[in-house]
Specification:
One of its GO terms (biological process) is intracellular phosphate ion homeostasis. It is found in: Cytoplasm. Plays a role in the regulation of phosphate uptake. Homodimer. InterPro entries: PhoU, PhoU-like_sf, PhoU_dom. By secondary structure, this protein is mostly helical. It has one domain: Phosphate transport system protein phou homolog 2, domain 2 (Methane Monooxygenase Hydroxylase, Chain G, domain 1, Up-down Bundle), CATH 1.20.58. Helix content is 88%, strand content 0%. The chain contains seven helices and no strands. The chain is elongated and about 60 Å long. The N and C termini lie far apart (53 Å).
Length: 229
Amino acid sequence: MRDAYHEELDSIGDGLVEMARLVGSAIGRATTAILDADLKLAEAVIAGDAKVDDLQRDLEARAIALLARQQPVATDLRIVVTSLRMSADLERSGDLAQHVAKLARLRFPETAVPRDLHSTVLEMGQLAQRLMAKAGEVLITKDVDLALQLEQDDDAMDLLHRALFQHLMDDRWQHGIETAVDVTLLGRYYERFADHAVSVAKRVVYLVTGEHADELGHSAAQGDAAEAQ
């Protein structure tokens, strides 16, 4: 009975890894769709989000069933509850990738991104995909050090996001209000996607250690300061 119970816990973890894989792929393909004005690819990303939603609903149902049947305690309870929260992060990430694809569809056959911002948006898309791939690796390995790195990696996304806004606020902006709104939304989608990847990694830290990632970072900083004295 307990073997079946732990197999079910493992299958929930596998579901999270699959969700991370799907949404990471989705944000990469959505980025290509919006930069290349690729309607077919945009439609594929939009339709593909249904699979992420199905996985999230299935994972949630299995987690709730485990809570009802087994009444897990301590570590096992933490796994189930944390898994529910991570699935919500991943489902929202899929929605954000879909938003990028929907914007590509809305502006087709034109592109929502001016040529002079293509490289910045491409970099944001690639970084978002890498962050989610790393979050997926953290889900598999439960590597706390790797999980903590994601927040530092996310700083690069924040810098790109700020650079996008600086471009929008430049007096030389010549692409109009509609394009400015599109670019503002895109920047927000990528920035939030990255935040969800970081959130997944932080939840893994809590799952493994029982402590929140921010608390661990604070403790590490105090330790470094003590060693320096």
